[in-house]
Amino acid sequence: MNIITHPEYEKLNKETETLTETLTEKIIEKDYLLYHLKPALTAEYMTKIGIYEYKIYEIEIKTRKIRRKIQLIQAKINKQEKINLKEIEKILTIEFTIFQEKLRKQLEELNKTLKFIEGQFLTEEETKEIKKIYKEIVKKLHPDLNPQLTKEQQELFHNAVQAYENGDLETLKMIKLITEGEKNTLKTIDELEELNKKINQLKSNIEEIKKYIKELLKTFPFDHQELLENPNWIKERTKELQETINEYEQEYKTHQQKLKNILERN
Fold it and tell me: How far apart are the C-alpha atoms of 144 and 183, rounded to whole Å?
């Protein structure tokens, strides 16, 4: 076996360390975007804009439903058939199942937002500590940096991700304590070929995560971040949405009166 010259090995080893640090930073960036910035931006959007959009969809469904109810009743009248309101309500329930489910999911998102806002109790110092501890755990337990992790170590890292996502500082401290003293699962690299393989894999992983982050930033709510920082846009958007709500509410009242008149005549 050829012996690797010291300068050459040191050069590649230093490159490996640099790439490992870069990948670690990119993993931290990705996880911060997913587990902290995304829910924070979503919460901001939902409280400033989303609540109006939910209200619009809710009143829109009510309006479409009462309009459809009038159509069904009018059809019975035209055929000179008995009007069975319970039967009509059953038909409406079936026809509007998909819309009601979508509305339920929107309400679920609003509730998640409220829970997220309620859970924002960490101090700035605690937030910094969480990031620091999580970075140390990532270096030791992330699969991209340590491909030979045991099943137990993989489970431990999964728990660390959950704790990071939930802002659970105490659990992260405990996981860090568990991993202290552990050496990376990778064996010492003493062959040039193996070291080059590691370098190539690190470069590949870095490019993949960069691409992922780039695409992620194009999606909601990241694509609304600048808008949410613009008070004029928020003011105009909420005004526009409120006007739409008012229009739907007026239309709903009109249909309500129309339905009442039809039922009174029949």
Answer: 16
Q: What is the pLDDT of residue 126?
A: 85
Q: Pseudo-torsion of CA 76, 78, 82, 86, nearest 10°?
A: 20
pLDDT recorded at residue 190: 54
CA distances from 154 to 10, 35, 221 (A): 30, 19, 30
pLDDT, tens digit (0-9, with 9 covering 90-100), for 4-37: 455 677 888 889 889 999 999 999 999 999 998 9
pLDDT digits (tens, 9 = 90+) for 70-108: 999 999 999 999 999 999 999 999 999 999 999 999 888
**Residue ranges of the alpha helices (H) in the chain?**
6-32, 38-45, 51-78, 85-95, 97-118, 124-141, 151-166, 169-179, 192-216, 225-228, 231-265
| Start-to-end CA span in the chain (Å) | 99
Q: Look at residues 246, 141, 117, 144 and name the one whose alpha carbon lies nearest to residue 204.
A: 144
211 Cβ partners below 8 Å, 6+ apart? none
pLDDT of residue 120: 61
Give Cβ neighbours of residue 140 (< 8 Å, ≥ 6 apart). Answer: 146, 179, 182, 184
Which residues, at least 6 apart from 173, have a Cβ–Cβ distance to it below 8 Å? 133
Instruction: Evaluate if residue 65 carries a pLDDT over 90.
Output: yes
Distance from C-alpha of 2 to C-alpha of 7, rounded to nearest angstrom: 15
Residue type at position 120: Q
State whether the Cα torsion 138-139-140-141 is positive or negative. positive
